[in-house]
């Protein structure tokens, strides 16, 4: 059976502009939710870890590894490293990206629900550390970047630069979020060494 799909139309900047606008709206709405929501550990899970924070550190580390695999596979698919990419690499890239996204949604939900978007002063009168503020803002931006990336993957009329830029933006934000969470935790407290792992 022949494919009779119409060829893509002319390239348009309206696609990336619309995607970046929608992504910004999502990020801002998540930030607003994080500010007005009353943080609670109710309706969160620790997946069998001792604490929610330990679960988030482990899953964030897995996300970090998946993001690095995303970078390497994207560079290989675009022909920037190695020889010809194997035929299975595109599928592996999509699967690892989907898994990283699902884990990020899970961890992001746990962060936003349990902690909210902390700025200013905590309820105990202690100033919120700059790292926590940056992490929270970047975490909201990640999900805006997810919107941009999903549009870029599906857009047929977007300029050729849009998909690599969207992917690079999401990758950069995810790395920054992992470094300001799991990276910070491990640097401050060491790797989780409690029983049960």
From TrEMBL:
Going by the UniProt record, its keywords in alphabetical order are: Membrane, Transmembrane, Transmembrane helix
Keyword Transmembrane helix tagged: yes
| Annotated transmembrane regions | 17-36, 57-79, 99-120, 132-155, 161-187
Q: Does the keyword Transmembrane apply?
A: yes
Please report the name of this protein according to its UniProt entry: Uncharacterized protein
Q: What organism is listed for this UniProt entry?
A: metagenome
């Amino acid at each position: 059976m022949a494919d009779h799909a119409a060829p893509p139309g002319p390239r348009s900047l309206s696609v990336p502009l619309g995607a970046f606008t929608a992504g910004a709206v999502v990020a801002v709405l998540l930030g607003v939710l994080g500010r007005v929501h009353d943080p609670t550990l109710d309706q969160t899970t620790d997946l069998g870890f001792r604490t929610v924070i330990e679960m988030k550190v482990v899953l964030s580390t897995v996300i970090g590894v998946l993001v690095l695999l995303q970078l390497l596979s994207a560079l290989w698919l675009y022909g920037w490293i190695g020889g010809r990419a194997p035929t299975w690499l595109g599928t592996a890239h999509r699967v690892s990206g989907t898994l990283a996204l699902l884990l990020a949604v899970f961890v992001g939900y746990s962060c936003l629900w349990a902690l909210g978007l902390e700025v200013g002063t905590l309820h105990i009168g202690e100033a919120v550390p700059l790292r926590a503020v940056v992490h929270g803002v970047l975490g909201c931006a990640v999900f805006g970047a997810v919107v941009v990336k999903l549009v870029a993957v599906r857009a047929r009329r977007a300029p050729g630069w849009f998909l690599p830029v969207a992917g690079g933006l999401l990758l950069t934000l995810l790395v920054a979020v992992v470094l300001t969470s799991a990276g910070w935790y491990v640097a401050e407290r060491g790797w989780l060494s409690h029983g049960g792992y």
